[in-house]
Write a structure and sequence with these properties.
By secondary structure, this protein is an alpha+beta fold. It contains 6 helices and 11 strands. The strands form 3 sheets. The protein has a 5-stranded antiparallel beta sheet. Strands 1-2-6-5 form a 4-stranded antiparallel beta sheet, with helices on one face. The two termini are about 30 Å apart.
C-alpha cells in the first residue's frame, strides 16, 4: 500500500488512496475486529471498504498487535474502544486519512481541489476571511479555510457549531505547507488553535491538536 505518513511528536497521520481492486479486509491482522463491518448488509461495498481502510490505517499507526476497534459517538466522532487514544478520520473521493494521538484531542480534514466548493462558499466564508484571500490562490485558500473549520468542528465534538459564526480563521498567506491560527467562539467556549495545512499533489490536508 502506498501510504503517505506525517509524523509529529504527539500524533501521527496516515493517508491512503484507495484502490478498487484491493479488498481491505484481507489487510486486517485480526478478522474479529471487522466483523461488524463485514456483517452490515445496509452499507454499500464502497462504504464498507472505507471503514475497513480506516481500520487498516489505525493498524499501521498503532505500532502494536492489539486488535483495536473504532466506534462512533452520538455526534459521529470516532473513538477507539477501550483506550484513551484520540482519533479523527476524513475521506474524500477515493482518499481516506486518519490521525492518531495517544493523549490529545485531534482533528483532520482532507479535500481534493475542485471548483465545486464555490457553490457552498457563502455558507462558511466570513467577510473578514474573504478580505485576506489572495486571488492568485483563491481556490487553495478557500479549501484551507473550509477544511480548518471542519477540523475544529471535529475537535470540539459537541456539535452545533455554525461555520460562519462560531469558527473564524485568522489571516494567512498561502504556501504549500504552513500553519495558521483559527478560533472556536461560542457563548460558553473560546479558544485559538494552531492549525497545520499542506498540499500534496491535488490534495489539501488540514489537521490540528488541542493543547
Amino acid at each position: 500500500m502506498n501510504i503517505h505518513k506525517i509524523i509529529h511528536n504527539n500524533f501521527s497521520i496516515a493517508i491512503l488512496k484507495m484502490e478498487s481492486a484491493t479488498n481491505y479486509s484481507l489487510l486486517i491482522k485480526d478478522s474479529q475486529i471487522i466483523e461488524d463491518i463485514i456483517n452490515d448488509e445496509h452499507k454499500s461495498h464502497f462504504r464498507q471498504q472505507q471503514l475497513l481502510a480506516a481500520r487498516y490505517l489505525l493498524q499501521e499507526l498503532s505500532n502494536d498487535s492489539k486488535p483495536y476497534i473504532i466506534n462512533y459517538s452520538k455526534h459521529g466522532k470516532p473513538f477507539i474502544k477501550d483506550t484513551d487514544w484520540e482519533i479523527s478520520i476524513s475521506h474524500t473521493k477515493d482518499f481516506i486519512a486518519l490521525i492518531l494521538s495517544k493523549d490529545k484531542k485531534v482533528g483532520l480534514d482532507i479535500e481534493v481541489l475542485n471548483d465545486r466548493i464555490f457553490k457552498i462558499e457563502k455558507k462558511f466564508l466570513r467577510d473578514d476571511e474573504k478580505e485576506f484571500i489572495n486571488l492568485n490562490h483563491y481556490l487553495e485558500q478557500l479549501y484551507i479555510i473550509w477544511s480548518t473549520k471542519e477540523t475544529l468542528y471535529k475537535i470540539y465534538e459537541k456539535g452545533g457549531l455554525i461555520f460562519k459564526e462560531n469558527l473564524k480563521v485568522h489571516p494567512f498567506d498561502y504556501v504549500s505547507k504552513g500553519i495558521l491560527q483559527a478560533d472556536i467562539i461560542t457563548k460558553d467556549f473560546q479558544k485559538t488553535f494552531m492549525v497545520n495545512y499542506e498540499r500534496v499533489d491535488n490534495l489539501i490536508i488540514v489537521y490540528a491538536m488541542e493543547d
